[in-house]
Amino acid sequence: MDALHEKMKALEAYLRELGSVAVAFSSGVDSTFLLKAAHDVLGDRAVAVTAKSCSFPARELNDARSFCRTEGVRQIEIESEELAIEGFRQNPKNRCYLCKKELFGKIIAVAKEQGIDHVAEGSNMDDLGDYRPGLQAIKELGVLSPLREAGLTKADIRALSRELGLDTWDKPSYACLASRFVYGEPITEEKLAMVDRAEQKLMDWGFRQVRVRVHGDLARVEVLPEEFSRLIVHAKELDEFLRGLGFAYAAMDLGGYQTGSMNRTL
Known about the structure:
about 270 residues
């Protein structure tokens, strides 16, 4: 625990040195913790910037707004429509790079308008172990990653979030809806909405960590292995629901939920 608190002190010292920061805020575990730490250290010199788009579910946007109201954080909302980015709809392997380049370019512009010196995002040490082209865009634009600078892992962030009384300490991991599409599968607003509704149905049934991956007209459902038996109970109803959304077939992934599972083919 002492080592964990040393990392927290290192994070606070790093943020204090910045003087002012705009945090890219999605209401996820990492960005919520980062925003809380930045606001505690810098007060009104820490602002949240939240991007609205068709790949960002309304429930996440509402969570972001609620947190900022509760904590007294100034929040700036921007429009960031990924489908308008050249090449994004074709879902190339560098899709995340294209998105992050456009998104953080807008956040940097907002920060300058507000007189904020730095822009920060919430990636942690665990994010270095997977295919993350978005991190290259972040590096190119000079966006800061304070959680990585402090050496914080996902487990560290959850533990410290719990100490701070953040509801997100045990919130399921989340990634934008565009990550549900196999590379090369065209991304459309209609299909994003299908994925959103499918995952919301599973969450309404009490499944916490879910993904509905798109492979053409097939929906591949990922839940935690310990929840396989519960998914089977809902199998018939889920199959009918997914076909009602527009999928022709539904399948359960026998490997269970895995972050970045679409990267296996790279």
